[in-house]
């Protein structure tokens, strides 16, 4: 059982704040891509906004990140999916793929931006040691938050391309399936949350291996190491 100390609670709060922001950008990316390809559903529903109230999913945005934060592994989660109507897209089949992949790609972009900002912080600290020592109380927290922001977005990318509803990977997989198989696969959306909880929590206890966590950690380690190598 994890020990709930003040430091751990503050750390969990920071992780949730990061994941909520990253998830909002993720969902806006879906909506903006759909709008670009001709579907105004997300815009009309008021989902192209940074207001957290329109995006937060109680389990995916709060409970799951909390559990991940206290477990000590990469923090990941998801927000309420942005609505869109594939029949309003200019090229429904191709554009539906673009809409689905836009979210995970936005997380990669956020990880890249976080890396560039971290590089700028480290560069400033190296080039002016005296100034860095004076503002160490700002530089160290900024460095920590940016590192966590990079890791969080790498984890969101890895997690969201898992081919399980309600994740983006399920939408991507359904687009390449034959029509009959696609219809059956999409029926799983009605049971999306129970399926996800079984895969995340029940299955690991039954088989003794947490496949999703191992996969997410591996992808995060690769992406983080690759990104950080450019600024060190």
From TrEMBL:
Topology of this chain in the membrane: Multi-pass membrane protein
Domain Peptidase M50: 16-200
Cofactor(s) needed: Zn(2+)
Compartments it resides in: Cell membrane
The enzyme's E.C. designation: 3.4.24.-
Highest rank taxon of the organism: Bacteria
Coiled coil region boundaries: none
Keywords on record: Cell membrane, Hydrolase, Membrane, Metal-binding, Metalloprotease, Protease, Transmembrane, Transmembrane helix, Zinc
CDD domains tied to this protein: S2P-M50_like_1
Primary residence: membrane
UniProt enzyme class: hydrolase
Molecular functions (GO terms): hydrolase activity
Record-annotated membrane-spanning stretches: 12-36, 56-76, 96-125, 188-208
Pfam families hit by this protein: Peptidase_M50 (PF02163)
Family affiliation: Belongs to the peptidase M50B family.
Name of the protein: Peptidase, M50 family
Organism: Fannyhessea vaginae PB189-T1-4
Classification lineage: Bacteria, Bacillati, Actinomycetota, Coriobacteriia, Coriobacteriales
């Amino acid at each position: 059982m994890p020990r709930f100390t003040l430091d751990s609670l503050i750390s969990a709060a920071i992780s949730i704040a990061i994941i909520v922001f990253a998830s909002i950008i993720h969902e806006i990316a879906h909506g903006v891509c759909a709008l670009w390809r001709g579907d105004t559903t997300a815009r009309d529903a008021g989902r192209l906004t940074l207001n957290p109230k329109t995006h937060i999913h109680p389990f995916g945005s709060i409970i799951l990140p909390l559990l991940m934060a206290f477990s000590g592994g990469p923090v990941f989660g998801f927000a309420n999916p942005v609505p869109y109507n594939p029949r309003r897209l200019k090229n429904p089949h191709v554009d539906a793929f673009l809409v689905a992949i836009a979210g995970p790609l936005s997380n990669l972009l956020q990880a890249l931006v976080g890396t560039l900002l971290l590089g700028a912080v480290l560069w400033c600290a190296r080039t002016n040691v005296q100034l860095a020592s004076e503002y160490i109380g700002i530089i160290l927290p900024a460095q920590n938050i940016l590192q966590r922001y990079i890791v969080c977005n790498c984890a969101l990318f890895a997690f969201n391309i898992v081919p399980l509803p309600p994740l983006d990977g399920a939408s991507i997989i359904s687009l390449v399936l034959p029509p009959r198989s696609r219809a059956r696969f999409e029926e799983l959306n009605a049971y999306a949350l129970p399926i996800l909880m079984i895969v995340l929590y029940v299955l690991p206890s039954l088989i003794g291996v947490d496949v999703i966590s191992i996969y997410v950690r591996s992808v995060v380690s690769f992406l983080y190491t690759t990104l950080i190598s450019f600024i060190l």
